[in-house]
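Training component of the fellowship. As part of building independent skills, the fellow (R.M.) carried out the full modelling exercise for a liganded target. The chosen ligand was threonylcarbamoyladenylate. The inputs are recorded below so that the supervisory panel can assess the work.
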Amino acid sequence: MTVTPVITSTEDAAVILRSGGIVGLPTETVYGLAAVATDHTAVARVFGSKGRPNDHPLIVHVDSIEMASRFGLMNDTARRLAGAHWPGPLTLLLERTPLAGDDITGGRDTVAVRMPRHPMALSVITLCGEGLVAPSANKFGHVSPTTAAHVLHDLDGLIDAVLDGGPCSVGVESTIVDCTETLQILRPGAITAADVERSTGRTVDTTRGPSRAPGMLASHYAPDARVHLVASDEEARRLMAELSAVGRTAVVIGVGLDITEYAATLYEMMRRADDAGASDIVAVDPPGSGLEAAVSDRLRKAAADTGR
Ligand code: TXA
Ligand code: MG
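Fellow's submitted model of the complex:
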């Protein structure tokens, strides 16, 4: 029996949030765990329920450039990117304003903001009249949720409601672009480096300094099963046969999928493998620089955590 109610009304979600609650919220990328960004008590509950370290900063979700400007400095680059890709799976890293508290920025001088494309998310933000923090609604380090059921799997009983908006269409988290200094992509997503260059007229800096997005380099997005990456469908079939010959129960993912389908179902497939008690996941690592790079990034992080 689930304890946390599944709701379908954006008005109900906004009422809970405005009274200090925390709610699982559908976005086009993954489900977020929302709280009003300026409500320090609610923000603390978001960290607590996820088991997330306090110095991992959160993304503020907004319904307009005006609302984004309350939390961060929308410079020319940020305005171009927002103009071209908002609402959409793009997070902008900006210099923060005093409204962006230390609790949501981890004490940094920057804040991350994004305007999601999911109509229910936008509606809830507008009804709240304030930005909402929304980290992915999973236990810290686990696979991100792409359905309301995934949110309950990780957080049932710990959060006040989950708003069911159906499965997420994109399936991997937003692209994070640092707009404060040189233009850098801190996390690959559906908005690609080529998109960012086209809409800003600037070159993306790919020289890798220390990451400015904490949690980005560590192993993340990890299922329980051990993840093996292979370069082709053929290699996947060969490894599946080898694993089965030694009595392992392996599940294959990514074979025969186009990249949009692969991204949209990646986390669902990882969670299904775990539910089925699979010992191993064999995943095709897609080559390429678009959405492929985002899928590959998540697969590598999942594989990094599974030397267990
Ligand atoms: O697609 C998404 O972005 C989803 C949906 C729910 O909107 N949200 C999401 O949030 O993926 P989360 O908290 O799981 O990941 C946010 C990432 C973190 O890795 C964090 O390090 C980075 O954004 N981040 C946030 N604020 C930052 C800041 N001020 N400086 C550097 N990195 C920041
Ligand atoms: Mg996350």
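The panel noted the following from the submitted structure. The first helix runs from residue 10 to 18. The chain has two domains: 6-200, 226-306.
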